[in-house]
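Translate structure to sequence.
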């Protein structure tokens, strides 16, 4: 059979048309197709990723419980190959937080006993697959922060305790498996310096003080200048809802804390401006009939001299950061209800770093709850370059035909009524939206911010993504060949028919 086209001109025109169709198809697929994960792991039972080790080799997942009495299983995976490394013994109780040592050899879980109010810290050896230590953190229910932190060098585990109404911070030496020091009358939050040599804690109530300790000696190593906070009148630093963080170079230590006057009245910032008002907690603003954004103090110190670098009063709705993130990875989120946008502010200067699409006013840290059967969560990579917004959009039966089609492509079924979560990834450096990951629930970032762990809506699959997620080039160029080949066959048939 002769496959030559009738003449050169028509042959060139056909090839140009095929190339144009291929390019347009690739461009359309680039705009529509979601990125593909770097690695997918099928979980033996529904669960979620909770922590990635600092060296990026270990991933820990936590199983979901159908009943309160069911044990929680922690599984440790190789994050590069997706192979199961070990399964830790089942935990009876509510697992609040999970932490991993920098090299992934140890896993620490904060567990609350059922009905007793006591909280314990379980320490597991990953290689042996068993529990090696158990520490009591609380002997009764309280509002104390369950602060746990590994040092960057992996030699020290620090955790806060409240036993018989006595607060303390324990420094546990990991190589010798012995207690190195107990810092009495100190509590969390805890922040290690990047080199692991210094630890910042909080002590006292009124006045509250930030203290910096030498981890090796268990003694205070730096005296911080802590002058009173002044506005129109002296302000007191609230002993609750605090946050501590070192900068990546270790030269700056920052504290974020709520402030109030001697009568307990807090500062609030009006939503539509920068004016500060003062009233009691829970009291509505008579001018707009609703509570305004609470104002917090952001104080930074020079870790070389202990002097205050800057005090800044900033009104914001919630703190957005990853656990143990440095100062560069923290944002202050302030919501604009009318514009349905969230403004992420720099904690040191109060300047806007990024604007994301959100709804509602966040009453809880890390979360934004809004009406209409929808909820949103905001989290940031530890180094602050990427911000993720998770949005849960009710049931699929309430979604548009396009959303139904995307769900069908992903094998979810048409109109099955299941809830759908989408993750939108933003670049704080470029100040723009990067990509949307459909049908994904946020899990955690790696400490270096280069890996994002998510789980599917049903919790049966785990996905690891490069940050930022690259486009699925293989799928784009592969699927774009289909219309080009089809057009080529039709063009050849038409030319042969004309001949």
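Result:
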């Amino acid at each position: 059979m002769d496959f030559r086209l009738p003449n050169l001109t028509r042959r060139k025109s056909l090839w140009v048309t095929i190339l144009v169709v291929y390019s347009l198809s690739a461009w359309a697929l680039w705009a529509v197709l979601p990125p593909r994960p770097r690695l997918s792991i099928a979980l033996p039972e529904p669960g979620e990723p909770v922590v990635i080790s600092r060296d990026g080799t270990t991933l820990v997942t936590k199983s979901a419980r159908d009943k309160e009495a069911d044990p929680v299983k922690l599984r440790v995976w190789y994050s590069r190959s997706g192979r199961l490394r070990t399964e830790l013994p089942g935990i009876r109780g509510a697992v609040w937080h999970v932490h991993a040592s920098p090299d992934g050899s140890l896993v620490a879980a904060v567990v609350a006993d059922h009905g007793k109010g006591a909280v314990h810290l379980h320490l597991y050896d990953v290689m042996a697959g068993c529990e090696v230590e158990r520490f009591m953190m609380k002997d009764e229910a309280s509002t104390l922060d369950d602060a746990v932190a590994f040092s960057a060098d992996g030699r020290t585990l620090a955790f806060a305790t409240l036993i018989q109404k006595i607060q303390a911070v324990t420094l546990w030496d990991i190589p010798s498996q012995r207690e190195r020091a107990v810092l009495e009358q100190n509590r969390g939050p805890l922040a290690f310096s990047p080199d692991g040599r210094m630890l910042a804690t909080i002590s006292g109530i009124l006045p509250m003080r930030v203290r910096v300790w030498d981890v090796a000696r268990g003694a205070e190593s730096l005296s911080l200048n802590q002058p009173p906070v002044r506005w129109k009148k002296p302000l007191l630093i609230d002993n609750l809802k605090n946050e501590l963080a070192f900068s990546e170079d270790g030269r700056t230590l920052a504290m974020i804390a709520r402030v109030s006057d001697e009568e307990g009245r807090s500062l609030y910032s009006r939503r539509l401006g920068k004016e500060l008002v003062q009233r009691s907690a829970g009291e509505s603003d008579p001018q707009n009939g609703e509570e305004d954004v609470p104002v917090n103090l952001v104080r930074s110190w020079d870790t070389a001299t202990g002097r205050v670098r800057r005090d800044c009063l900033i009104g914001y709705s919630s703190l957005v950061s990853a656990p143990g993130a440095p100062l560069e990875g923290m944002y202050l989120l302030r919501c604009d209800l009318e514009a349905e946008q969230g403004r992420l502010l720099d904690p040191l200067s109060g300047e806007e770093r990024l604007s994301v699409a959100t709804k509602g006013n966040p009453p809880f840290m890390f979360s934004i709850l809004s009406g209409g059967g929808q909820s949103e969560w905001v989290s940031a990579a530890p180094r602050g370059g990427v911000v993720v917004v998770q949005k849960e959009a009710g049931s699929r039966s309430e979604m548009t035909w396009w959303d139904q089609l995307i769900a069908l492509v992903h094998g979810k079924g048409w109109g099955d009524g299941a809830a759908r979560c989408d993750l939108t990834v933003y670049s704080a450096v470029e100040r723009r939206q990067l990509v949307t990951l459909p049908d994904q629930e946020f899990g955690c970032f790696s400490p270096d911010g280069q890996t994002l762990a998510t789980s599917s809506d049903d919790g049966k699959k785990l996905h690891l993504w490069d940050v930022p997620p690259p486009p699925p080039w293989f799928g784009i160029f592969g699927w774009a060949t289909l219309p080009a080949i089809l057009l080529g066959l039709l063009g050849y048939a038409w030319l042969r028919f004309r001949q």
